[in-house]
Structures are given as C-alpha cells and as structure tokens.
Design brief:
The structure holds two protein chains of two kinds. Chain A is mainly alpha-helical. Chain A is built from 14 helices and no strands. The relative contact order of chain A is 0.19. Chain B is globular, with a radius of gyration of 24 Å. Classes of the chains: A mainly alpha, B alpha/beta. The interface between A and B is large, with 32 and 47 residues. Chain A: Pfam families: BPD_transp_2.
C-alpha cells in the first residue's frame, strides 16, 4: 500500500548538498555557455561586485538567526556610502588616518541606525518586519536629504579619496585579487569564527531557537537580539562604503532592493526565517549562486527583466529542494 | 465485527524500524488502551492511522473492509480523529471557530450565530457549559483547550477517536469530567483508542489493553484480567517497587526560605526547603503552583515576598539573578520553555555554562564542553545517537533529561522542577526519579510541582498543597496520603 519507501541514497545526498551542487552546476554551465566566464578578469569583477552583498548577507544572517528580518540594510548602505563621500573632503586633514576616521564614523552611524532597530525589536517587542520597514523608509529619506537627491562627488585628487578609490579598483599586488574581495573574505572569516567559537555566537543562535528557554536559563536573550541588529547596521554601512569605493561616488539610490538579495542569500543557504538555524558559509554560497545567476545571464545578454524572473525561479527551486528532506517523513 | 483492525503494520525511519508488524483490533463501543514505553511505537501507529505517516507493510481495515489512508483528510473522511498532546488549534480564533473550523472553510459567509449555538451545544453536551464559545482559544487554560479539541473531533461525527495522553494536562477533577465524557461516547458506539501513562486511568476506564514493545504487539488482554504490577511488567519488564527507590539523603539545614510571596494568582506563600530534601507541591492546575515557582525564580514580577538562601536574604529581579544565586527552574512546558528543539544536545546542556569556563581570549572550549556533556549524558543515561543530535528528535523523557543537564552543569543547589515527568514514559520517569534522588543525596534542595499523587507520595519528603493561590496545608509522614492531598486541594472533606 505504501507509496513512499525510505531511500537514503541519491535523493538524500542531493537534498543535503543541494546548494553545493547548484553552485557547481552554475559554474559548469557558465563556463560552457561563455568562454569569457572563466577568465580571471570576469571572476574578479564578479566577486568585486558581490563583496557588498556578502557583507550585508552576514549581517542579515545574524538577524535571521535571532528569528528576525532587517529590511533597512539597503537604505543604511546608502547612508554609509554617502557619509564617507561627504566626510572625506570635509575633514581638515588628509591621508590614511582621515579615511579610517571617515569609515569608522560611517560604520558607527550605520550601527547606531541598526541599534534603533534592535531597541524597537528587543526592547519594545515590535515585530522586526515593521520596525525595520520604518527604518528602511526613514534612512532612505535621510539619504536623499543629505544631498538633495544628488550623487555626492568628491575631488579625485584628494589623497584620502585616492586611497579609497584605489581600494575599490585595484587588487593584491601580483595576484590581482580585488581589495574589497580580500576585505570581505577577512570579515566573513571573522564572523564564521565568532559564531562558532564565542559565547556571543552560541547564544545568538540559541536566542533565535527559543528565546523563552534562554531567558529561563538566566541569560539576557534580548541583548543578543539587539546586538544582531546593531552589527547588521554596521556591516550594511560598510557595504555602502565598498560601493562608493568602486564607483567613486556616493549615491542615495545605492542598495535599493539589497535587502531582498540578502534575505534570498540566507534562504538559499538554508537559514530558517523562524530563527536558530543557518551558517555563514552556506549564506556565502547563497551569495555566489545569486551572483552567478546574474553573471551568466549578462554574459548571454539576457535582458534585465527576464533575469529577475529566472532569479526568482531559482530561489524557489533551491528552497523546494531543502523542503524535500524535511517532508520526506512528515505530511502534517 | 471489529470497527478498527490494524494488521502487521511496519514503518521505518531512515533504515531504523519503528514498527515491525504491530497491530491490534478494537470494537465499536469500546475504550481500548494502547500501552507501552515511549519508543514502543504507539505514537507512530496512531500517526499512521491518522494519515500523518505512510506505512510500509500491513493493512488497515475499518468494519472489515481494507482502507487506504494516505493523508489526514483520508483519515478524517473515514471518521478517524486523533487528539494529540500538542493541540492543533488556531490560538487566535474563538472556541466556536476552532470547533467548527471545517465548516468555516466550506462556506463563503459565516453564520456566527448558528456557529456559536452549535459550539455551545457540543460544549454543554460534554459538561463544559462554562466555556464561552466566543473566548479566544489562546487565552484558555490548557485543560480547556483540550476540551475544545475533542469537541472539534465530535463536530466531524468521528467513529474512531484516539486520545493521546489526554489527562497529562488535566487536574483530577477535570480528568473525572473527561472520563464521564469518554463513557458517554462509548455508549454512543464510538471506538475509543486511549493512550496514557497513568495506570489508574487504564483500569478505571478501559475495557481492553493492547501492549506494544519495541515496535511489535505483545498482546491484547481484558483489563479485568490484569493488575498494575502485571501490566507494568508487560510494558517494561520491571517491578513497580523499583519506581521509587529509597533515598539515603541526609536532610540538612534550611537551604531556601520563601516568606510571604505574592504575585498574580499567588497570595502570601511561605515555605522552606532543606538541603537534601525533596519538597512536593500539589494542587489543582491553576492553583498557583507554577506561578509561585516562576515568581520566586524572577521569571514573573511579584508584588511582595522575601527569599532567603542559606539564611541570607537575596534579591531576585530576573532569572539571571536566580541562576547566579544557584537556583534552577525546570519549566512546566518542556518544548516551549525548557529546551532549544532545533539545536544540538551539546548546546542545550551547556546553556547555563556558556559564559563560565571560557578559555583564553574568552573563547568557547569545545573539547572541555564535549567532555562535560558526555559525562552528563552517561550520568543521566541519555539515549541519543550523539551529542550533535537535535533535541527535537529525542523522546519526551530524554528531552527532559537534556533540560535538566543545564542545571547540573551550572551546579545549582536549589532546583525548582515544574511537572518534571509530564508526558514522559514509565521507564524515563523512573530514571528522572533516580536523578532527583541523587541530587538530593548530594545536598541539593529540590522542589517538585506535580499533578500525580503517586509521585508526590513516593518521591517527596514533605508535600505542600496549594489552593487558589494560597498554601492550603502541609503533609508529611503518615499523614501524606492521596485522600488528604485531594481534600486540601479541593477544599472539602470528601471527594468521589
């Protein structure tokens, strides 16, 4: 009578490693479809463009791990990119130290905006969707107000700006790996380590899994939620700075829709939107998958509108595959 | 002819057999008990009947005809209703909407008046006319939520009703009402499959008993032909006298003293617990037992009261204060409050220790954590594939052991255990009793809230009975009897 039999073989493996498989398939397909794909130039360009999304996705993952969502990341990124562009010429001194101050200030501003999200969610019990939706609107409005809606240009010959644009356009001597990619890798590695090896990481995940149980173990669950939003804000601002470094201009339209790509990266990477489950490594694979989809279609000259449809279909496909494993033995 | 006949049912999960040719048959107008330890296969068998799982071998017959049940809709269509321990109620909808939820889905427009009347009629028919059909279900006590769940089944004219541990959340009084209802349903010819870990209920209510062990049927007996000891030994192959092994705990000085504790639903509660002592707290559900523990632990605000630990007054403003002072709480709702279901055993066990015992640079020490968790796993005889196993995959008893682990790790010497054996099978119960005894023997002061008489009497040195938020009395020694507990809990001299 039975229609299903337990088959722990091929299907289970496919489900377990589906995102790695999907990444491999995309890489092979890209290489087969376009001879330009496997050139170092193309790969470096792709990764350079993905660096901001990688940073934002790490921040988003932290929030998602606590069971929340942050819609304000794109707007905060815009503010981060613009603040640096505006602050550099305004500082009375030039050079690397000036840049450091600009970047630190912009990241702190982003973290402060994220902290407001965190306060509303963890302190006042507001739904994260609502709190960060409000912040998304407000921060975007602020970004437009900062420059009356105009892009903020800065003098290229300014020594501070030169360091920033060199960071954005050049790479490691010899290898040529773009600096933003190197920086993103370092930050990603840092968060992989922090989540695995510190009590902060452990308890952030635990809070997302069951906040009540964490509080009844005598631990301040709300604090971990708050921190997740603040860190996410800081990382978003840094992502905006990366964009400014690459394009040499701070624009208020930076990061429109970025929150959706970041959420998609987390979800493709297997993170549970209800919290308590997800890893940085898999989220980065999600980022790569999203980036490859765009890249392959650009190389094949697929117009922009169909691209969005295909991207959506691939997200659905990835999440459906993950669901197969969970549903194999459960129907209710 | 048998109403329900399940024959030679087999089911595997990932290569591990949960059922190997289990089966039984039950008649119309019969209350048929399904017994066995957790893991024996009762729940799997019932989930197959409910269409939640497919089976790999065997067949199901209803009134002699083979039927195919591949989905919950199939099962409901054949008159089968299963009431699980975890209810499937829409918490934000009203009682009436929940009971008649199927009709809700079928109509475009909702006739609220008619729905309310129909729901009120069903509730009154069960003897629960005091439940307001307009009340939102999430606001009802758990006991009443169950009544709503049963009414939901009745509204679908079910002819086979499975009750999975229905009394686990009920007070003695409420359970009596449920029994009356079950008997009424039996007279109407409903075939009732009754799962419970409480032997008293089986003998009071059930006509026949089928015992499962390790995924296979041991046999079916008339209840009248069995007694407690025989039934228990059929289930676990062990004697009842092993249930409450004698404790060699030396009772020492007072460890915890609570004076005049008041909080919502708790009025002027005072008590003491000594080192090495197990203090029981009995009383009806809603008598303020859980609320008193939570207020004491700092999980809920309190309006008055003093807490003295080892003779010194301490301030507990939140659970963090309580934990630092050495107090641990095992909450009543294990899955919602006690454990992190989708995380590994290791994370759960080390929850309270995560900020202590950090290595250089404030990093976690995986190897030390693993060793500590492994030691606890052996001490508590936790049955799990590995320390990486998600807690949600464990049985109720093993989940409770995991919830306890964090208090053993933190070295808490005052333990507040709220219904520590709820929804736990016989074998695991005995093990939890053993752990409690050992903790007391090591000098811990233990407070156990329980709705099970036999637990209060067998496990505790002293029992406090609460009624309507106050301490109604204290029982110990020869005065600690089931009758006295019920008298104090109900506030009258004679019950039954």
């Amino acid at each position: 009578m039975s229609t299903e039999t337990a088959r722990p073989g091929a299907l289970a493996l496919l489900v377990k490693y589906n995102i790695y498989l999907m990444l491999a398939v995309l890489i092979i397909a890209s290489a087969a479809l376009s001879e330009h794909f496997l050139t170092l130039q193309n790969l470096y360009n792709l990764l350079r463009q993905l660096a901001p999304l990688a940073l934002v996705s790490v921040g988003m993952l932290l929030v998602v791990l606590t069971g929340g969502i942050d819609l304000s990341v794109g707007s905060v990124a815009a503010i981060g990119g613009m603040s640096v562009a505006m602050a550099m010429p305004a500082l009375p001194f030039d050079g690397g130290f000036a840049l450091l101050i600009c970047v630190a200030g912009a990241v702190a501003f982003g973290a402060a905006l994220g902290a407001v999200n965190g306060l509303l969610v963890a302190g006042f019990g507001m739904a994260s969707f609502v709190a960060t939706l409000a912040m998304m609107t407000m921060a975007r409005g602020l970004a437009y107000m900062l420059s009356n809606g105009q892009p903020v240009r800065f003098p290229r010959e300014l020594p501070t700006a030169q360091i920033l644009t060199t960071f954005g356009s050049k790479g490691l001597p010899g290898l040529g790996t773009p600096w933003p990619v190197v920086a993103a890798l370092v930050i990603v590695a840092l968060f992989i380590f922090l989540l695995r090896r510190t009590s902060w990481g452990r308890l952030t995940v635990a809070t997302g899994s069951n906040e009540t149980a964490v509080r009844l173990a005598g631990l301040p669950g709300g604090r971990y939620k708050f921190l997740a939003y603040a860190i996410c804000g800081g990382l978003s601002a840094l992502a905006g700075i990366f964009v400014t470094a690459r394009t040499a201009v701070g624009t208020p339209v930076t990061g429109v829709g970025l929150e959706l790509d970041a959420i998609a990266a987390c979800v493709i990477g297997g993170a549970l939107l209800s919290g308590g489950k997800g890893t940085v490594v898999n989220t980065m694979i999600g980022v790569l998958i999203l980036g490859l989809i765009g890249n392959i279609m650009n190389l094949m000259s697929v117009p922009a509108y169909p691209q969005q449809i295909i991207k959506g279909l691939i997200i659905i496909f990835a999440v459906l595959l993950q669901g197969v494993g969970a549903r194999a033995n459960r129907r209710v | 002819m048998d109403r329900l006949d399940m024959r030679a049912i087999s089911k595997e999960f990932g290569g591990i057999a949960a059922l190997r040719g289990a089966g039984f048959s039950a008649r119309a107008g019969e209350v048929h008990a399904l017994m066995g330890e957790n893991g024996a296969g009762k729940s799997t068998l019932m989930k197959i009947l409910a269409g939640a799982y497919d089976h790999q071998g065997g067949e199901i017959r209803i009134d002699g005809a083979p039927v195919a049940i591949h989905s919950p809709q199939d099962a409901i269509g054949k008159g089968i209703s299963v009431i699980y321990q975890e209810f499937s109620l829409a918490r934000h909808l009203s009682v009436a909407e929940n009971i008649l939820i199927k009709q809700l889905g079928r109509r475009v427009l909702v006739d609220r008046k008619a729905m309310r009347a129909r729901a009120a009629e069903l509730l009154a028919g069960m003897g629960f006319a005091d439940i307001d059909p307009d009340q939102v279900v999430g606001g009802l006590p758990v006991a009443y939520q169950q009544v709503v769940e049963i009414c939901k089944a009745l509204s679908r004219d079910c002819s086979i009703l499975v009750l999975d541990e229905p009394t686990a959340v009920l007070t003695t009084h409420e359970a009596e009402k449920l029994f009356t209802l079950v008997r009424k349903l039996r007279e109407r010819g409903v075939c009732i499959i009754y799962i419970s870990h409480r032997l008293d209920e089986i003998f009071a209510l059930c006509d026949r008993v089928t015992v499962l062990k390790d995924g296979a049927t041991v046999g079916t007996w008339d209840t009248a032909a069995l007694d407690h000891d025989r039934l228990t030994s059929l289930m676990i192959g062990r004697d009842l006298s092993d249930f409450f092994p004698p404790r060699q705990a030396e009772i020492g000085p007072v460890a915890l003293e609570v004076r005049g504790l008041s909080a919502p639903q708790v009025h002027d509660v005072s008590f003491t617990v000594r080192k090495g002592e197990v203090l029981g707290i009995g009383g009806l559900v809603g008598s303020g037992r859980t609320e008193a523990l939570r207020a004491l632990f700092g999980a809920d605000p309190r309006s008055a009261g003093e807490v003295l630990l080892h003779g010194r007054a301490i301030r507990i403003r939140n659970p963090g204060d309580a934990v630092r002072a050495g107090i641990g709480l095992l909450p009543e709702d294990r899955k919602q409050q006690g454990v992190l279901l989708n995380l590994p055993i290791l994370t759960n066990a080390m929850l309270t220790a995560v900020n202590a015992n950090l290595g250089p640079l404030g990093l976690l020490r995986p190897r030390a954590e693993r060793a500590a968790a492994q030691a606890l796993r052996e001490e508590l005889q936790l049955k799990a594939a590995s320390l990486e196993a998600e807690v949600g995959t464990l049985s109720g008893g093993n989940q409770q052991k995991v919830a306890l682990m964090k208090w053993l790790v933190s070295g808490s010497d005052v333990l507040l255990l709220d219904e520590p054996t709820r929804g736990v099978d016989v074998g695991a119960k005995v093990e939890i009793y053993r752990v409690i005894n050992e903790l007391a023997a090591k000098g811990a002061a233990v407070v156990v809230v329980s709705s099970e008489m036999i637990e209060l009497i067998g496990l505790c040195d002293r029992v406090l009975v609460m009624r309507a938020g106050r301490v109604a009395g204290e029982l110990l020694g020869p005065g600690l009897t089931e009758e006295r507990i019920i008298e104090l809990a109900m506030g009258r001299a004679h019950v039954h």
